[in-house]
Every structure is written in structure tokens, then in C-alpha cells.
Amino acid sequence: STSGNMELREPAVAGMFYPARKDEAIAQLEQCFAQIKQREMVPKAIIVPHAGWVYSGRIAAHAFALLKNTSVRKFVLLGPSHYVYLEDVAQDDHTLWRTPLGTVPLAPCAFRKDGKAHAPEHCLEVEVPFLQHLFGNVTLIPLLAGDIDPREVYDRIIPLLDDALLIVSTDLSHFHTAQDAVRRDKRTIAAIEALDYDAMLKHGDACGKIPVLISLLIGKKLGWKCKLLASAHSGDVTHDNDRVVGYASFALW
Questions:
Q1: Residue 243 and residue 167: Cα distance in Å, rounded?
Q2: How far is residue 29's CA from residue 1's CA, in Å, rounded to a whole number?
């Protein structure tokens, strides 16, 4: 970062994916959480989208709201690396992340450190203010998954979940017509809800496909169930239905 502080990761997409000013960010988060009825479910993991908040923030909030049912304040964030090619799962090499809502500490883990992959990445950063808004102080273990066989890595994440909750970050289909996107996303959603690894591998259409597959293996191993909470696509907001991105949020418990 330009401040020369090697410990601190500055936000990469504040002012783009979400407001850079604290008051505006809080106002938008409050909008995302408005009108969400509180469910009873106590999640072990959630799957959330990572587009700009105006597109997918409300869908994500359906899942984040469930976290209020738990006392856990440590979160493993798992998403795809959009900017740097990885062949493994990498943690960040900073010890703190800053967002417009403040600074949160990272907990170390055994995965390789790769600050270059994390520095520009939006898919985990956009989720952090939701957690800060709900809980104030949280601890994060941000992980980016590259081109890796999910079966070779999922059981290395399980020990982290002894005292942490898993947040998987993914969008669904990209740049199809709304009609086509809804059809594709239905198949992906069905595979995720069924914790069906093979169906997700074959038919799943998601930029975070590998993180999702990892979560399905973890869920199967730990005997979790999965339920869709909300879904939409960008055309619902932009009213341009020619080229849309699909979004969905899920609870695993």
C-alpha cells in the first residue's frame, strides 16, 4: 500500500463496488438489511454473491442476517482469484484489512501467503463491511482458491471451522440473456442445495465454482444441509435483460 504499511491491506474497490465513505456505506448496508425477515436457522456456513452492493447486496444480506443467530465472530472467507492465476489456496500476507467501516485483524493459517493475489481482489473485500456492520469487531481468514482440485484441499479448511464460520463468495452465470441465466442458475442452485458435487462440477455455472465445490465437500463430510435463501440477476436492477449476471445466497447448517 502507498502508506508503506506492510501489515495493512487497503481497500481495492471502495468507491466502485460499494461506497468509500463510511456514512454512505452504512446507509447502503442498512438498505440491504431492510425488509429481511429474521429466520431461526443457525448457519455453519453461507454462500453469498460479490457484485456491487446495488446489484447483489440485498441478496447477500439474506445470508448475512442469519449470522446474528450465532455467537461466532471469526470468519473464513473463501472466494475465487479473479486477477492473479493461482494453482492453490492462498491466504493474504497482511495482518489487517481496512474498509470504510474500520480495520479488522486477520488470523493466520497454514495456507501459502500471496499478497499479490489478494491486493486487487474484490470478491472477499465486498463481504467484510457486512460483517463489520453486524458485529463491529470480527476476525477474518481470507482465502482465495485458484485452479485446484477441490478434493485435494477441502479437508485442510475443516480444522479452521472449529471456531470459525465459512463464508463462500460466488456469483452465478455471467453475461447470458435473463431467460437463459435463470435456466442456468436454476441448475446450479439445485446442485448446491442438494450438496451434489458431481452435478455442480458438470452443470454448475459460477465464477466461484471451485470455492463452492470445496464447500459442498465440507458440507457432505460434516453432515450439513443447504437451503437457497434468495436469488436474482443484475437485470432486476438495471432492467437490461440482454446480458446479466446471476446471484444467489444460501445457508448451510
A1: 27
A2: 26
First to last CA, the chain: 38
Q: Which of these, 102, 101, 146, lies nearest to 123 by C-alpha position?
A: 146
Q: Tell me the three cell numbers of residue 64.
A: 448475512
What grid cell was written down for 227? 437451503
Q: How far apart are CA 189 and CA 209, in angstroms?
A: 12
Pair 102, 77: CB distance under 8 Å: no
Residue 14 maps to a domain: no
pLDDT in tens, 185-233: 999 999 999 999 999 999 999 999 999 999 999 999 999 999 999 999 9
Bin 207: left if φ > 0, else alpha if -120 < ψ < 50, else beta: alpha
Contact yes or no for 156/123 (Cβ under 8 A): no
CA dist 44 and 21 (Å) reads 31
144 membership: H or E segment, kind and range: strand 139-145
192 CB-near residues (< 8 Å, 6+ apart):
47, 200, 204, 212, 216, 226, 228, 248, 250
Burial 48-72, CB ≥16 within 10 A → b, else e: bbbbbbebbbbbbbbbbbbbeeeeb
Q: What are the phi and psi torsion angles at 194 (to 5°)?
A: -85, 0
CATH code assigned at 190: 3.40.830.10
Structural domain boundaries enclosing 234: 42-252
* pLDDT tens, position by position, 71-84: 999 999 999 999 99
Identify whether 116 is part of a domain. Answer: yes
Strands 112-113 and 89-91: what pairing?
parallel
Which amino acid does the sequence have at 206?
A
